[in-house]
Design brief:
Layout: H1 3-9, H2 15-31, E1 41-44, H3 46-54, E2 58-64, E3 69-74, H4 79-83, H5 87-90, E4 95-99, H6 103-112, E5 118-122, H7 127-152, E6 171-173, H8 190-204, H9 207-210, E7 219-223, H10 230-240, E8 245-249, H11 260-274, E9 278-283, H12 286-289, H13 302-315, E10 324-330, H14 338-341, E11 348-351, H15 357-368, H16 379-384, H17 391-407, H18 415-427, H19 438-457, E12 464-468, E13 478-481, H20 491-501, H21 503-511, H22 520-536, H23 562-589, H24 591-604, E14 606-608, H25 609-616, H26 624-643
Parallel strand pairs: 1-4, 2-5, 7-10, 7-11, 8-9, 9-10
Antiparallel strand pairs: 2-3, 3-4, 6-8, 12-13, 12-14
């Protein structure tokens, strides 16, 4: 029982250590002749060598006939004169060496000077050291080449190397691999979750579906805006499924080498077939699945198209992929190749849309679980304050609220922290140090009050939540509204929104006598909305029921004539001019109330719905969000009433005496 843990703790063998040992051994053999604690050598000319002998500096002389060098050991008292250092640095036996002309001349020189010290003659035949010294650079270069080739291939086991560049980079998750995301962690998106869960159930219990003659879907494409939880759904599939799960990104197929992408696709499907039944998940498939160009000269990437062709072949070619299901995610389904989207490849398109009100409530409950919250925090209120937010945005709001509460040293996260977090994410960070003149501040107050006043008096304009003239991000002022969550939008609703957006510019012209650059963002939004109404939705009087929208990727010509383009421009100008005049008439009708609202905004810098309501009175119209909430509350009251036990007409009512009435 004790042997297994010991085996697991043993270090794994790595060839890098073997390479290092070989290099160190070669270095030791090369320099062993010069090793020694007391060795310190200085090479001089033969003339200087003769001078040192004549002065009596030497103790022993060695003549080496192999390398034609003569060496002498210097006496300790003369070490500093020659080496300019003491024996503590040079050692006890420092030497001086010189290249001699011939051994006979050395003998005659020593005999003439009557040298009485010891003289030795030696011959060394160290051919091994010479051979190793010449081959060592070659060994080092070869070793470095192997090392870098292994690193290029990804390092590690025997399958790595430069030849593994065409191998799949998919990560494999199997049962018990530690991926703890399940369907319980995916809040909202009940429809998408049901369809994905059905795929998992099919792999777990295929007989339930095949006994009626049905076939397993070959692929499912998760489509939706960024941050809505497409990858999270795939992780939940991996956590729930009892089958192998291959996960990779579309960009993992793309490589600079020709043919690598197609090779990786083949390798991925060969691994999947070996482990079938299994699931393959390709995130951001638009990186490899973009529509193929009809004209390669227009900049088409041949390597990417070859990879896509191989993917199409593997998904539904002559080969069989029984038991292999492909999941993919993208937020740009409009640019995908049509052959990739046909039935038989991706049989299902699962739409993962932005969460609605009740789905946002469920998402908030998931992300609020780890936070320390104030008692009685209204989650429904938070969900109503975040229309159009994705799951990732809501997670960011919760995290930002916790950071704001910690910044202010609060023990818990409260309602105001969440409101500040929403403001921070939508409008940006407050720039309280930005200097504005009194005239600029008054102009901004009039502008924002114009938005608030016009939107308050229009039936279909979004309800106002908050107006501020404190600079945030790139904006000098901002107004927060609560957009209605509509499935369709009528022409009247669009016109009211355009009119409310133009209220700021209209207020500047009416009450300041000039216009400013502060309406840039308003005019941009209005122009886009107006062109969309005229050119795409057919909501103009001169061009009714006509749509000039084209989603062709390589459309280089407009789908209408120049005369029609002039008519579209004229219709847009008329539409915007009409709503601008309408906004000015509303402001003139309520000029005093607008001036009062602008004054309060100038003084306080921030106003809320209650302040506008005190000046203009209650709005006579209810928003669709309020109607939905009231309907939900009514259903809850009805359900509670039905839960109360009411005696039936057939039951006998007992009187005080215990006899039936």
């Amino acid at each position: 029982m004790n042997e297994e843990p010991q085996k697991k703790n043993m270090p794994k063998f790595n060839l890098n250590w073997l390479y290092l040992a070989i290099i160190l051994g070669l270095g030791f053999l090369l320099f062993q002749g010069n090793a020694g604690g007391d060795s310190y050598n200085k090479e001089v000319s033969y003339t200087e060598f003769q001078q040192y002998v004549e002065k009596g500096y030497t103790r022993d002389i060695t003549v080496n006939k192999t390398d034609e060098m003569v060496r002498m050991v210097i006496l300790p008292q003369y070490v500093r004169d020659i080496f300019k250092a003491g024996t503590d640095r040079t050692g006890k036996a420092p030497t001086v060496s010189a290249k001699y002309p011939s051994a006979d001349r050395v003998d005659s020189f020593l005999a003439a000077r009557k040298y009485k010290g010891s003289v030795r003659y030696e011959e060394t035949n160290n051919y091994l050291i010479g051979l190793l010294s010449s081959l060592l650079p070659v060994f080092l270069l070869v070793g470095l080449w192997f090392y870098f080739m292994r690193r290029m291939g990804g390092g590690g086991g025997s399958s790595s190397g430069v030849f593994s560049v065409g191998k799949s980079k998919a990560r494999l998750f199997e049962k018990g691999s530690g991926l703890h995301v399940t369907f319980k962690d995916v809040a909202g998106q009940e429809g998408a979750k049901q369809e994905v869960q059905e795929i998992v159930d099919f792999l777990k219990n295929p007989q339930k579906y095949t006994e009626l003659g049905g076939k397993i879907p070959k692929g499912a494409l998760l489509v939706g805006p960024p941050g809505t939880g497409k990858t999270l759904l795939a992780k939940a599939v991996a956590g729930e499924a009892d089958v192998p799960f291959f996960s990779m990104s579309g960009s993992d197929f793309v490589e600079m080498f020709v043919g690598v992408g197609a090779s990786r696709v083949r390798d991925l499907f060969s691994q999947a077939k070996a482990k079938a039944p299994c699931i393959i998940f390709i995130d951001e498939i638009d990186a490899v699945g973009r529509a193929r160009g009809k004209n390669p000269a227009l900049g088409g990437n041949d390597e990417r198209e070859n990879t896509l062709n191989q993917l199409l072949t593997e998904m539904d070619g002559f080969g069989t992929n029984s038991g292999v299901i492909i999941l993919a995610a993208t937020n740009r389904v409009d640019i995908l190749d049509k052959a990739l989207l046909r039935a038989g490849r991706f049989d299902r398109q699962i739409h993962v849309d932005l969460p609605e009100l009740q789905e946002r409530v469920a998402i908030f409950k998931v992300h609020l679980a780890p936070l320390k919250l104030d008692e009685g925090l209204d989650i429904d209120f938070l969900a109503r304050q975040t229309p159009g937010f994705s799951g990732a945005d809501i997670a960011n709001v919760c995290n930002e609220a916790a950071l704001i509460a910690a910044r202010h040293n609060r023990p818990t996260v409260g309602r105001q922290d969440f409101l500040d977090a929403v403001d921070r994410i939508i409008g940006g960070l407050e720039k309280k140090t930005k200097v504005m003149t009194a005239g600029e501040k008054r102009t901004i107050a009039l502008h924002e009050a114009g938005h608030a006043a016009v939107s308050w008096m229009l039936q279909y304009a979004n309800p106002l939540v908050k107006v501020t003239i404190v600079p945030r991000g790139q904006a000098l002022g901002a107004a927060w509204y609560l957009p209605e969550e509509r499935n369709i939008t009528t022409r009247e609703q669009m016109l009211d929104e355009i009119c409310a957006t133009l209220g700021g510019r209209a207020a500047e012209e009416l009450f300041e006598g000039h216009i400013s650059s502060g309406a840039l963002n308003d005019l941009e939004r209005v122009t886009k909305r107006a062109y969309g109404m005229v050119a795409y939705l057919g909501m103009s009087d001169e061009l009714p029921n006509l749509c000039y929208y084209s989603n062709q990727e390589y459309a280089f010509t407009k789908p209408y004539s120049d005369r029609t383009a002039e008519r579209i421009d004229e219709e847009v100008r008329k539409l915007i001019a009409g709503q601008y005049a309408r906004a000015k008439s509303i402001l003139l009708e309520h000029a005093e109330k607008h001036q009062e609202l602008a004054r309060i905004l100038y003084e306080r810098e921030v106003i809320f719905t209650e302040d506008v309501e005190q000046i203009f009175g209650k709005r006579p119209w209810k928003s669709r969000t309020d109607e939905l909430l009231e309907a939900e509350r009514g259903e809850e009251v009805t359900a509670a009433a039905e839960a109360v036990e009411v005696p039936s007409a057939d039951s006998e009512t007992q009187t005080e005496g215990g006899q039936p009435a």
